[in-house]
Design goal:
- This protein has about 150 residues and is an alpha+beta fold.
- It has 3 helices and 7 strands; from the N terminus they run ααβββαββββ.
- Strands 4-5-6-7 form a 4-stranded antiparallel beta sheet, covered by helices on one side. Strands 1-2-3 form a 3-stranded antiparallel beta sheet.
- Strand 1 and strand 2 form a beta hairpin.
Amino acid sequence: MKQQKGFTLIELIVVIVILGILAATALPKFVDLSGQARIASLNGAAGAVRSAANLAHAASLAAGGNSVTIEGTAYTMVNNYPAAADIAALAGISASTGYTLPAVAAGVATVEVTGAAAVATCSFTYTQSAAANSPPTFSALSTAGC
């Protein structure tokens, strides 16, 4: 008499049930990755703006004027720091890179992540320098709506 080898139907069902339970517990972990991605994108944009402001500041000090030319483009400086109207271009941030840039008002530029449910609450602001020897200010990241 030959002995057959293999899995019984009950063993296969138990394995499928265990895999289903594991999938059900792991699914919530991967559902909200889009919000985390927008926050990471916003952090990257904030870092790019800070770096661009510092590099332009150094270039302005070296040039000694109210305008600097970086990579063939002239940028306006306010107290040796980039004007709010120019900071997005200096940092390489635009609508084509995933950001919404509302109009600059009173020397304040707001950078918002495109695609957030409430875009205005997934943002940060850059306020240009208000006085000589005073650096620009950056708001804390607003991530409530990301």
